[in-house]
Amino acid sequence: MKEYYFVLIAFVAALSGILFGYDTGVMSGAILFIPNEYYLTPTMNGLLMGAVLFGAFLGAIFSGQITDHFGRRKVLITVAWIFILGSLWTALAGSIYQLISGRCIVGIAIGIASYVGPLYISEISPHKYRGGLIALNQLAITVGISLSYIVDYYASFYEAWRWMLGLGVAPGILLFFGMLYLPDSPRWLLTKGYEKAAREILQKVRGPSASIDEEVEDIKEVLKKEGHSQWKAVFTKVVRPVLWIGFALAFIQQITGINTVLYYAPSIFKMAGFGSSTSSILATMGIGGILVIFTIISLPLIDKWGRRPLMITGLLGMAIGLGVLAWLFKTSEIEASLHGWALASMFLYVACFSFSLGPVMWVMIAEIYPLKIRGIGASLATCMNWASNLLVTATFLQVVNYIGARGTFSVYMIFCVISIIFIYFFVPETKGVSLEHIENNLHAHKPWRQLGRKI
Ligand code: BGC
Q1: 92, 113, 357, 372: which could join 229 in a potential S-S bond, CB 3.0 to 4.6 Å?
Q2: Which of 18, 22, 136, 253 to mutate to test the pocket of ligand 1 (most atoms within 8 A of CB)?
Q3: Distance CA 12, CA 83 (A)
Q4: Could you give the CA distance from residue 125 to residue 426 in angstroms, rounded to a whole number?
Q5: Ligand 1 center from residue 103 Cα (angstroms)
Q6: Is 71 helix (H, G, I), strand (E, B) or coil?
Q7: Mind listing the pLDDT tens digit for each residue in 330-372?
Q8: Are 83 and 19 spatial neighbours (Cβ–Cβ below 8 Å)?
Q9: How far apart are CA 339 and CA 349, in angstroms?
């Protein structure tokens, strides 16, 4: 069992993903009942819906240096507290302003958790299984989203939006107690010079009979290379390739439209002419199920097939799904006889995202940056992810208004195709190599695509 200690660690750290998923998904149900208590102008509605995304952006941008300074574990423990307090603050809100500020606080925690969880897992996992273990975090996100749909469904009978928001406390408490018992990242400990503690933890996670000397020496070797744990180090020539790759992957994950489908699924189904709200909600729950199932399918494939083939195949499937959906929207509605096709194309799109861009983007931004600035690098890519999420979801309805559903889905399809080309030419394969290996290639100025190659 000792050998599987790292799996247990990855599971606990991935609890932060449940919070991420739950708190981004829960509002779609709560927003139906909040107006019964508080009058919401369209601006207030927009602020309330956008508060989490804005908070996440803030959380990600300001926490990178803190994560490198105080370590991943302490940051995750603090994040659990912010989640707990933020959820209570929203559940007990006495005014719309308290509600919006509470959602912003929860957002800050989401922004931090979204990259610190994967980063912590990446630094503790053996490289053979690293991709699948980091992707547990994405699985947790999808489970969190599905849980929020289920809670919303049952709480909606009582119009209990406060319970919907307040239940976010439960995974927060689990994360807090779980992280109390987990060790610090051995790699981070080495950056601070705590070699003895780092060795003890590494020995424990690799198993009592494993030899850890080579791994420790490799880490110490990369730490000797130039570079400071500061913001300006992220913009040096050596780091620039991974800075761009991280930004691009984070942008691609959002610009190809996933959250328009997730946040607006019931509206899209209604737009397509699906009769009742119930059939739209049921179809939305189907999407939740697909998210989880296809993320599970991706777990072993990330380390077996590799990151690049998964992303390229997934994007191809997403492009086909979007192309069919766009084609079906001949007018502003889809003919009733074609509803089955509309559903199938959306399911195809979500399934393909779930085994590719969904997990792989978070896996890669936890892997590619040099150790000393890994927190700052991952936080910057995460900011890009939340900013593009905000941009795409906030403009979706207006864009549909201007160019129609067909035009909008066609644009996302074109982004998928451009992304395939970018990934093919520029994104490295990082499966099966150590994090130090990637860092050494970066210092050796290898071409972008070869950063994951064995030297
Ligand atoms: C993305 C989120 C998305 C979620 C869906 C994550 O990887 O970053 O924006 O809502 O996947 O599962």
Answers
A1: 372
A2: 253
A3: 16
A4: 26
A5: 18
A6: coil
A7: 877 777 777 888 889 999 999 999 999 999 999 999 999 999 8
A8: yes
A9: 15
